[in-house]
Amino acid sequence: MTRIIGICGSLRAASYNRGLLRACATLLPEGASLEVVEIGDLPLMNEDLEKPGWPQAVQRLRRAVWPAEALLIACPEYNAGIPAPLKNAIDWLSRAEGLGGTTATAGETRRTPLAGLPTAIIGASPGMLGTARAQQHLRMSLQSIGTLVMPGPEAFVAGARGKFDEESNLVDEPSRAAVGRVLAGLVAWTARLKAS
Ligand SMILES: Cc1cc2nc3c(=O)[nH]c(=O)nc-3n(C[C@H](O)[C@H](O)[C@H](O)COP(=O)(O)O)c2cc1C
Hints:
The chain has helices at 16-27, 56-65, 84-93, 132-144, 173-195; strands spanning 2-8, 32-37, 70-74, 118-124, 148-149, 155-157. The chain is an alpha/beta fold. It has one domain: Rossmann fold (3-Layer(aba) Sandwich). Strands 1, 2, 3, 4, 5 and 6 form a six-stranded parallel beta sheet that branches. The radius of gyration is 16 Å and the shape is globular. It binds flavin mononucleotide. Flavin mononucleotide is lined by residues 10, 12, 15-17, 76-80, 125-127, 129. Residues 2-159 form the NADPH-dependent FMN reductase-like domain. This is NAD(P)H-dependent oxidoreductase. InterPro entries: FMN_Rdtase-like_dom, NAD(P)H-dep_reductase. It holds the Pfam family FMN_red.
């Protein structure tokens, strides 16, 4: 079993990127599971909030991510980069245990929840580039904190308005196939890293 934790970088109710994660739940390879964790209740990163202990929402997020074997991020693009809510979540997850007191997630061996975690990025946007710039930006940021971002396959769902239905479900078959390839790749990437 490969336990994948999913993060949607959009807080919008009818988010295409949340729709991508819903599609992923139906396209998982056998033996993989996907749980999506919410990031909308996190306070904005402020080191003053780390003492005496992390805020409840931060602890909840970190506890959800620690046991995951792999991470899947659905990344929208805002102004050619990572949307603020997603960057905020990554900043909270990048902090070492101990900074937030001893209550958070004692007993873990990795330095941070994201260090060494096999990860894949996908994204959808109504524009022509399908979040390519934001994904590149996110890849760079994650690499700087030791997250093991899968080199490929990649999935950029461009022109999203024509590829999702009115409920923001992904209906475009080539896009579903592309996302399916990312999921299969992530499971293989996770197994390869586990074995090494
Ligand atoms: C502040 C802001 C900046 C945006 N900048 C971009 C952009 O640089 N490139 C792009 O393709 N779409 C951009 N968009 C449009 C988003 O891709 C679009 O709103 C998309 O639906 C957001 O993802 P979601 O559907 O998952 O919420 C921007 C939207 C907002 C609100």
